[in-house]
Amino acid sequence: MDRKEVIRLEGLTKSYGGEDVLKSINLTVYQGQIVGYIGPNGAGKSTTVKMMLGLVEGYSGSISVFGTDIQDQDHLYKRRIGYVPENAEIYDSLTASEYLAFVAGLYGIDEEEALDKARKLMSQFDIDQVIYSRLSSFSKGMKQKVLIISSLLHNPDLLFLDEPLSGLDANSMLVVKEILSQLAAQGKTIFYSSHIMDIVEKISHRIVLISGGNVVADGTFEELREQNKQGSLEDIFNDLTGFHQHKQIASEFVAIVQGVSS
Ligand SMILES: Nc1ncnc2c1ncn2[C@@H]1O[C@H](COP(=O)(O)OP(=O)(O)OP(=O)(O)O)[C@@H](O)[C@H]1O
């Protein structure tokens, strides 16, 4: 059976202020894959995601989502996408129910139906008792659960998750990881960006590492281990990004803190 292409990036290049952040990225993602998209701080992960969402323009190369170049389609393709941003601008003065009804409206879902679904999903995360409370009173993890729910209310085919487990306790993380596996098993495609290497290692069917503007590794965790070195994804990450100085940097940092550096 042919694998269905969900995302295709061809020669994707993006510069800011004359600096190339992405240098000709080529990547094809297929339906049902969980792709762990990793790289050092500032490597261009969030930029790539925002470009696919049509939030960042001014690039060369091409981006196809659901088989069509995003420049040749209207915004309706976004109705099949869910997005958990790294730094979400959540409207703190709204209650959870108001916020979720607002997001549902953006996706064109009926408000009553959306609220019924939101209440059931909040109950699964054990936060349904605060559905009418303002988000400003929510803890970080509670807000993150609302964001995850808001990204899934419209049952999207493609999910972009940027550090989605941020602030979640260990039990909630376990639940969300299992939700992602089950969604992927049902044919949803998940583009997962995170710095938590052991989670990326465990949940991803495929890991894509970008560094210096290029894809420097692309494969299953087992393939990456075979091609690079035995060890954890953290070891492979350190190796492929040429980072071996953590002890030296830490010693110098501590010396400066203690005021003993030259
Ligand atoms: N609007 C912008 N204007 C100028 N430079 C930007 C802008 N957005 C991103 N950049 C730069 O592009 C580079 C990539 O940023 P991006 O946020 O995509 O990195 P990232 O891989 O997601 O990093 P992190 O892991 O720290 O979240 C950084 O050097 C950043 O300073």
TrEMBL record:
Residues 7-237 form the ABC transporter domain. Coiled coil: none annotated. Keywords: ATP-binding, Nucleotide-binding. It comes from the Bacteria. This is ABC transporter ATP-binding protein. GO terms for molecular function: ATP binding. SUPFAM superfamilies: P-loop containing nucleoside triphosphate hydrolases. The keyword NAD does not apply. The keyword Nucleotide-binding applies.
